């Protein structure tokens, strides 16, 4: 029996992310439904260790950690899944960039792994969790398929965007206007599901 989803009825939402690119995208996507946003960083909350083995497990862990401070919190755990690399970097996408968040290096690592391989398909995945202070959670997962190109192109996005060309396009997410990316990304797919379930 499917349980009845819980709706977001407050007016403040904590964005449980320390990634500025994601915080900006989440605030853009949920702008119409939420009066006030704050972030885990602004509340001085620590960045929890991502010990889960799936995107959803890590999104739940980050959202629960922030909701413990007393407000409904939303977390995003996302990454680039490359079948030819056995699914890497996957949940390790941020960690591949190291403590300096060096995505030029992380993208080079992906490209080196693809040397001599013909399958350059990839998929961005985004798990979103909304967590309440009483422990209730709602989670969804979205995806966006595409192809990896080299060299990287464009500086409009973040992370692995400059090497990802979504299916049906010939420009990378790094070259795409943010508004366009927001309509079709893995994060947009996940948000559509979560908004349907919890925000209207
Ligand atoms: O739209 C995207 N365009 C490009 N790259 C992306 C995207 N979405 C996720 N990614 C990559 C980079 C990011 O760093 C990692 C997520 O790792 P993830 O642990 O979920 O996020 P994070 O550590 O950067 O911030 P936080 O955990 O505080 O939310 O996957
Ligand atoms: Mg992280």
Judging by the overall fold, what is the CATH architecture?
Alpha-Beta Complex
Shape: globular
Give the ordered list of helices and strands. EHEHEHEEEHH
Helix content class = 25-40%
Strand order of the largest sheet: 2-1-3-4-5-6
> In angstroms, what is the radius of gyration?
17 Å
What fold name goes in the CATH topology slot? Maf protein
Low-confidence stretches are none
Structural class: alpha/beta
Helical segment count: 5
Mean pLDDT: 95
Distance between the termini: 22 Å
Q: State which percent range the strand residues make up.
A: 15-25%
The kinds of small molecule bound in this structure are: 2'-deoxyinosine 5'-triphosphate, magnesium ion
Q: What does the main sheet amount to?
A: 6 strands, mixed
Query: How many domains make up the 3D coordinates?
Result: 1
Question: CATH class, please?
Answer: Alpha Beta
How many DSSP-defined strands? 6
